[in-house]
């Protein structure tokens, strides 16, 4: 018992996390979004399959539909990360938290660790929600669909889960950088969804964004096809991980030097 | 104990705290006094490692706050009692803090009882009255049974019962040998609680003294005398070295001489007195005088 350590901070942060309805509710919302949008994407793409020409039908890849909902749910996962930080600034409890844990690196690490530990099981669950509902709807329409045991599926689910762990940490960094819930959620979501604007960008820029933007690069863990670039999955993971790490380090530098 | 040395905090061209040095000793309540905006909160935030000093140091028991191995077990702080997550319960709020310093749940419940919040431990912290919030803030400060306590304006907005409770608590904590630093902008409050006073104005130290020394009979004390023979007495008193101001035809205000001496001079010269009232400077007046001076002459660098 020489000094309060990371384990103590982790317990405190876990207590904070579970005693705020906003974070828990937003996380539940991420799961609900994955399931609901999974149903919508599944049935929409199922209809599109039925209406398509035979050539297009042959090229239909059900995996493309599997994680569309997942990519929307990530916005709420990022918001969970944001809220673990900005709820403290909003309520004015950050001074008390920093007084209790004056080593700010440790406090930041505690918050990041709780979000990562929560997303470790919740990430794959959200991925599963997106996958199962979309594939069930495809099957119901008579379109090709995938089962959990199909080749590549377990890996994609694990990759999609890992992706959300990183997105949660991205939210934590955003929260520390901007300190305001509205700002951090808005900017965070905009940056996550930026690749969706690729079609309106000039060709080279669009190609770059689709290949190297951290979200599309990271999404190579579980998608292939027109909405993601052609980096290998490992390289995509590296791009996203490096980005999130850099943001966390920037957040740490700011959090350390700023008055609370 | 708390030790400040040349502590300074600037925000751009504004100096909030300037070259502040003083010690806060254990066993007594130290009142930290100054008008609103004098830099009390900024000073306390620097002691607690929340704001980084521009220069100088603040240490608690010889260490920078951030270097304390178990901060909550060594220092308890109440800065803003309203700073709670409104939806979190009283118990939850305290548990979040306690866990970070490995303070057992039993102690959390004990402290809730100590401040009289047991019956509402499950209520959301946002639903508490100001007085109850203040009690919650004090419970948080006491969680680690710390030897050093820092309270920022703890009686602000409290009802008389709450004020009395906090006064008693401060005195008890000090009597147990703890170091207690309490800020206030009201001298009348500090007069009832503090043993020692540190007064600042515009971020500068104005006084660091015992409460009784603060109002020691001094050059500001006056004696009011009424007599039909005011002209004669004024003359005799000036001869004896006092400063005399004639307030009205029959009224003199004497400075620089105590009541008994004034009476003696009157008797020697056969002047009949109608009234002789020594007027000791009150704490409030001494404080006003001190801080007024700082307001008039304290800010040549354009401080707020």
From TrEMBL, chain A:
Membrane-spanning ranges: 20-40, 71-91, 112-132, 152-172, 184-201, 235-255
Keywords: Membrane, Transmembrane, Transmembrane helix
Keyword Transmembrane helix (UniProt): yes
Identification of the protein by name: ABC transporter permease subunit
TrEMBL record, chain B:
GO molecular function, a single term: ATP binding
Domain of life of the organism encoding this protein: Bacteria
InterPro entries membership: AAA+_ATPase (IPR003593), ABC_transporter-like_ATP-bd (IPR003439), ABC_transporter-like_CS (IPR017871), P-loop_NTPase (IPR027417)
Residue intervals of the ABC transporter domain: 2-227
SMART domains: AAA
Keywords of the record: ATP-binding, Nucleotide-binding, Transport
Residue spans crossing the bilayer: none
Key word Glycosyltransferase present: no
Entry's family note: Belongs to the ABC transporter superfamily.
Protein name (Swiss-Prot/TrEMBL): ATP-binding cassette domain-containing protein
Provenance organism: Planomonospora alba
